[in-house]
């Protein structure tokens, strides 16, 4: 059993692809192994697993963060359908502050993304009935939960969907602009 780990352009954000053992029945895959992630230098003690379903293609969830002491690293994968997953660097001392990376994750490709603490995170669904599962290394806190506007022109994220028909929660649709956001990291 092995995992392939590839840094994205912001090198702390990683694509992790676990091996799939295929046979006539389908496949088997270890989607998370503490020992292997540790050996690969991925440093997170996950404490909560999340699962969400987005009914319509073009649903956007994000851009989200939890402020310290509830900051969360996330390990995201797709169970059904496909997403474009985006991470924005909001570490104030980082040379890539305000820059983003993205990756396509699908049930088919089995690719996972590791998003460290200190990033905004969001995704857009590319297929109907897309389900994702993700691990986080700090519990949910309603008070620490925050958002930045997903399609802010200052961030200029290429989501690869039709922005005019994107489906958002009320909270995400009215999230503050990046320019008026003060990063807690
Ligand atoms: C994220 C979360 C939400 N909730 C509740 C709060 C609310 O009533 C309901 C829906 O919450 P939200 O609208 O924030 O769900 P959602 O928009 O799916 O939020 C998620 O988006 C992605 C992009 C992330 O990165 C996650 O960390 C999380 O922020 O679920 C929990 O109880 N625990 C949790 O961990």
TrEMBL record:
Site (Participates in a stacking interaction with the thymidine ring of dTDP-4-oxo-6-deoxyglucose) residue list: 140
EC numbers, comma separated: 5.1.3.13
Catalytic activity as recorded in UniProt: dTDP-4-dehydro-6-deoxy-alpha-D-glucose = dTDP-4-dehydro-beta-L-rhamnose
Domain of life per record: Bacteria
A matching Pfam family: dTDP_sugar_isom
Keywords: Isomerase
Biological process terms in GO annotation: dTDP-rhamnose biosynthetic process; polysaccharide biosynthetic process
SUPFAM superfamilies: RmlC-like cupins
CC per GO annotation: cytosol
Matching InterPro entries: RmlC-like, RmlC-like_jellyroll, RmlC_Cupin_sf
GO MF annotation terms: dTDP-4-dehydrorhamnose 3,5-epimerase activity
Protein role: Catalyzes the epimerization of the C3' and C5'positions of dTDP-6-deoxy-D-xylo-4-hexulose, forming dTDP-6-deoxy-L-lyxo-4-hexulose.
Similarity field: Belongs to the dTDP-4-dehydrorhamnose 3,5-epimerase family.
This protein's name: dTDP-4-dehydrorhamnose 3,5-epimerase
Organism: Hyphomonas polymorpha PS728
């Amino acid at each position: 059993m092995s995992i392939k780990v590839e840094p994205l352009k912001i090198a702390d954000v990683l694509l992790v692809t676990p091996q799939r053992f295929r046979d006539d029945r389908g496949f088997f895959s270890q989607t998370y192994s503490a020992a292997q992630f540790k050996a690969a230098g991925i440093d997170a003690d996950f404490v909560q697993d999340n699962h969400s379903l987005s009914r319509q293609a073009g649903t956007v969830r994000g851009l989200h963060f939890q402020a310290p002491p509830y900051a969360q690293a996330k390990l995201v994968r797709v169970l059904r359908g496909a997403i474009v997953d985006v991470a924005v660097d909001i570490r104030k001392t980082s040379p890539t502050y305000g820059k983003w990376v993205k990756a396509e994750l699908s049930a088919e490709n089995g690719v996972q993304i590791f998003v460290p603490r200190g990033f905004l995170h969001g995704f857009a669904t590319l297929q109907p009935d897309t389900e994702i599962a993700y691990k986080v290394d700090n519990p949910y806190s309603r008070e620490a939960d925050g958002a930045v506007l997903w399609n802010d022109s200052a961030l200029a994220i290429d989501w690869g969907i039709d922005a005019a028909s994107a489906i958002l929660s009320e909270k995400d649709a009215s999230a503050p602009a990046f320019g008026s956001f003060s990063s807690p990291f």
